[in-house]
Amino acid sequence: MEPAAPVLSRAGWTATASDEETARGDNRAANVLDGKAETIWHSRWSESAAALPHSLVIDMHRTEVVSALLYQPRADGPNGRIGEYAIHLSADGQNWGAAVASGTLADDATTKTLSFAARGTRYVRLTATSEAGKRGPWSSAAEIQLLGDPGLPASVVELPTTGWTASASDEETAQADNRAANVLDGDADTLWHSRWSGGATPLPHSVTIDMHRTQTVSALTYQPRKSGGGPNGRIGAYSVATSLDGVSFGAPVAGGVWKDDDTVKSTTFTRPTPARFVRLTATTEAGNRGPWSSAAEIRLSSPADPSVSGAWDRVTGFPLVPVATTVLPNNKLLAWSAYAIDRFGGSNGYTQTAIMDLGTGQVTQRRVDNTGHDMFCPGIAMLSDGRVLVTGGSNASRASIYDPRTDTWSATGQMNTPRGYQAMTLLSNGEAFVLGGSWSGARGDKDGEVWSPATGKWRKLPGVPAKDTLTADPAGPYRADNHQWLHATSRGRVLHLGPSKQLNWIDTTGNGTITPAGTRADSPDAMNGNAVSYDIGKLLTLGGATAYENANATRRAYAVDLGDGIGDGIRPVSKRTGDMGYARSFSNSVVLPDGKVAVFGGQSYPVPFSDATSVMTPEIWDPATGTFTKLASMAVPRNYHSVANLLPDGRIFSGGGGLCGDCATNHSDGAVFTPPYLLNPDGTRKPRPAFTSTPPARIANGAALPVTTDKPVTAFSLVRAGAATHSVDNDQRRIPLTFRQTGGTSYELKVPDDPGVALPGTYMLFALDPAGVPSVAKMITIG
């Protein structure tokens, strides 16, 4: 794996610290820049130790685009390993603003990558607020490095190209239609190429975009020609300059060297710049094949309008890669990886977990040994009482339960069939159903089975063979039965609606049955896509690819309507809705309180453990129009082994990716996204309604639920707490509630009678005002 961003040269840099030990040891701040792991900075420890917090400030003595800090702990002992931390940036060393990253580091000697949104800065400050092992009031570091522009611009939105024109220093028109205008036509099969007929024009070559109006621009995206047309002309070394009049171009606002491949490249400007003209200049050909330059498409991005595109909070570091996450009833987020914090393998019988307090942002780490279960690549189901059932994975037969009420893990009955990458869902009767999972154990024949909460044991379903649900993946059942999309309905029934193009009704009573339910309209197989229940009996499927990896992802989305006969085995009606702006596989999708669906991350060409072809721009789908709108881009790629969850405050957690050991694509972090429904154009929060009554902790299906709010509201919805892993979250579903007004701001809500509609379990209850702004949710349990 290649790094997502270059390591910046430390030539000319200096380091200072809030305090340092020099009396009894040469533990100066300057040691973090000397290239020697055996020398360290240490907070003052002689005489009396300096109290926490401690901080290090790196002065680069120039403005650079920075996207991460690499922290290498001391190698000669654990004392001073940084635990909780925060990172601030400054242009002048005086004004620091809000933290761009914070979190908790694992108590080990590995080098940590602390990521944040790429931006131009001169000063970077790392502040330690705790020692990782609580051994004393100390902080230390062996080496500090910074990563530069990852080519993945953050907190920007792609500008529409309507009315734009493009010109070039030279172009080929005699023997091919390689005009500059082709970089704006939206067709990757057409391209601009420098003149090559009759004698090539020597480098450098440039393309100038005229937006025909002044706009603030902060990033440029370059798509090379497709590999099928040959590699010639891929841009290597480049620079970007801007102009207001097309005549006077200032100093470059970006520059660097792009890799010699056909992946889409981006470059982040050192600062947002007002411009009408943006010029990309190529000074070398990436493979040194000749004096040529080419481009299939060029796009420009601008800082996002929060009221339209939402906004990202700081990146929060985790002491592990959050491969699986679930929202708990106590306003916390449970996450886990595998036996290790950054890698998987074997069947080690324990799991690294972490819990994030959503109120404070604090993250705590814990190794779970007592269940004998390595829970990497599991199935997950949220039980009716708020507990979390986790099955299979690296320890392929085991099953474990987490109880948030007591913060304890316990073992439950082992599955009859060893599984990994299986799919799970709770059933309307409170049991849990599992299907597929050939990643662990013998390949194939991963037929259905059901877990009983009364006995803690599993019952085989010989009438539900996994072979009827497979995709046509070239790797066979090993990949073809993975990560299935399951939607529980009435009377213990389940709609299997993907990722195979074939849909099926599954009945879990007795020995079980499986019945074909048609196809998902004209959709091919869509492995590593996902499905989201956004309304009663209505689901949206998004993205995926015809194979688990190394196949082009799709932009397609489909609406699947179960009609009025939910659970009666009728054939669902599927139709293609508006396409996403980007093809995605390994993405994650979340339903919002207003019924819209947000999708995050993914790759246009899925490859596990890679950040190539990352889609950095989230999108939101509106069921009223069937269209997608682009949102503010992410700071960190979220691909294979990433997650996303709706939070009780109406925001969204997006995190993870990687878990590949000593690789450059481990993302031990996450960030919270604030959707546009909560924000004004200047980024301030909109006033939101609030509940002034406390609903009961548990309520039965069919019950009336009285509530009061502080202002008039026009809608209420329930969103079931979700559990995400490997792009799938079969637990989440949204239920709009019918209600009647009983007073000025008093209402009586009707909980659906059918437990196949309001599935048992923990829900977030939201109230929405006339502008669609949601309240902070009240947590209730139904059933």
UniProtKB/TrEMBL annotation:
Location of the region described as Disordered in the Swiss-Prot/TrEMBL record: 1-28
InterPro entries the UniProt entry points to: FA58C (IPR000421), Gal_Oxase/kelch_b-propeller (IPR011043), Gal_Oxidase_central_sf (IPR037293), Galactose-bd-like_sf (IPR008979), GO-like_E_set (IPR015202), Ig-like_fold (IPR013783), Ig_E-set (IPR014756), Kelch_1 (IPR006652)
Pfam families to which the protein is assigned, alphabetical: F5_F8_type_C, GO-like_E_set
Top-rank lineage group of the source organism: Bacteria
Signal sequence segment: none
CDD domains: E_set_GO_C (cd02851)
Entries under SUPFAM superfamilies matching the protein: E set domains (SSF81296), Galactose oxidase, central domain (SSF50965), Galactose-binding domain-like (SSF49785)
Record domain F5/8 type C: where: 1-130, 147-305
PROSITE patterns: FA58C_3
Name recorded for this polypeptide: Discoidin domain-containing protein
Organism: Streptomyces griseocarneus
